[in-house]
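Exercise: predict the fold of this chain.
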Amino acid sequence: MKKNNTTPPIKDTITITKSKKRTRNTCHMKPKPEPEPEAGFAISDIEDIQFREDSVAEIRASLLKWYDVNKRDLPWRRISEGEASDRKAYAVWVSEIMLQQTRVQTVIDYFNRWMEKWPTVHHLAQASIEEVNEMWAGLGYYRRARFLLEGAKMVVEEGGKFPRSVSDLRRVKGIGEYTAGAIASIAFKEAVPVVDGNVIRVIARLKTISANPKDKTTIKNIWRLAGQLVDSHRPGDFNQAVMELGATLCTPLSPDCSSCPVSSQCSALLKTKHDPSALVTDYPTKVAKVKQRHDYSAVTVVEILESEKGTVDTSDSGSKFLIVKRPEEGLLAGLWEFPSVSLNEKDDLVTRRRTVDDFLKNSFGLNVNRSSNIVSRDEVGEYVHIFTHIRLKMYIELLVLRSQDLHRKKDKGSMLFKYVDTKTLATMGLSTGVRKAYNMVLKFRQSRSSPISR
């Protein structure tokens, strides 16, 4: 991208769309005098929209001045420009990956622990995927953690220095257009834009863009407009300022227009003065959420007793749990979990247990139908785990078995499994759903007034 951030003076344009009347209050404030929108002037193609040169200069100055005073104190921002740029790039990279679909307040503690354990990309490159998943546990979207590790290994293998430009950063595993722009602008001062949901919302309101914000063409043009705005002298600060504005003031439902540093440039706010039914929150256009898929599964916490005792003692160091590694691709790729099988919505308890029994026998050689092997089998409860587009209802049971011959030949392509004790299980990087299932088992155990027996 060119570093010249000025554009030819052209007539500022505003997309005029008819809004349905609503009762929500608009943001009331008095922006600087602006010319009224031209009657009947509408643009259907946002490729024609640009920022005026004088507007660009004012937006840059106002946003940077506001950011210098109001920016949040976040750990990844504390690395000064005087420190090694590679260290700053690494911190930006880790923080941006963690922040994807995760709240800032949640990320802070994770980021601090991560940087304490792996302070440089070289340290991270030496880690195992199990260590990374353990550190990531609870953040969700574990594919992000795997890409961080794979990307770190790639950087180290290619000399150990971070790529400086967007084009070179894009070659690193797991670094997309947004993350590349963030690293390049914040750590290396390349005058390139970044576009996330906050930036889309801010620009859509500045230019009253009514096009679908999820549409690829719309997003492409938002990137173009963001490129016009980015400050060539302080590109990293400017990009963070726009995102900070969207996160703190120009929010989806309750924008604080009276405190906004660029309110005088906001076409959406201006429109509310001329159209009583218009709202700043009309922009960007609301898009219907993707309907969640409803899935069902039976999760069996299998505990193996090494002793011949007929009761379960939770302090028994000989007790181990069966865990299974998920496939390396797809949802929760490469993570360890308790054995689980997919169900139909209407499967009853008998059907669920029969499905589980077949799975355990075929996959691990565990024949639970021999009554002499079973110490106890109890329904623990149900838990609904929400993914982005999936609502997974899990039926959780605890199955306690006496020691069996667990050494079974693994055919090529068969799933990986192992047995771990309670202490190991507590330190593993388990997903939120798996951890919840285990905690439900522990709570169930505690609620029993007598030893579990069959």
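Check your answer against the key: The chain has a mean pLDDT of 84.
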